[in-house]
Amino acid sequence: MAKENKKSREWLAQKCFVKKASVDDWFRSKGIIPPAKLELIRKEINRQGEEAAKTASSVPILNGVAAVAVPLSEDDLKLISKAAQISGQTIEEFIRSAALEDAGE
User: For residue 46, which of 76, 14, 5, 78 has the smallest C-alpha distance?
Assistant: First the structure.
């Protein structure tokens, strides 16, 4: 769970109100997580899912396309522009394809 969500065992221990050593034991002992701690983990996963849904729903949609503003330094913009030009894409196409690739699409 923690690895799939890019969360550390320390993070998981904090959310379950235990020490990291306890989380380490869960992963060593055939994946046996105490039921009460498993419920805390489920609640946290649900909370994060709801939070992600709220964030996604707060993105403005313009002409059927989500509009996202990303602050970039002038140097970053020049670098991205050059990479987009080399790949034969607009800046928008380049950023979209890079973001979707990182997202696993």
Answer: 5
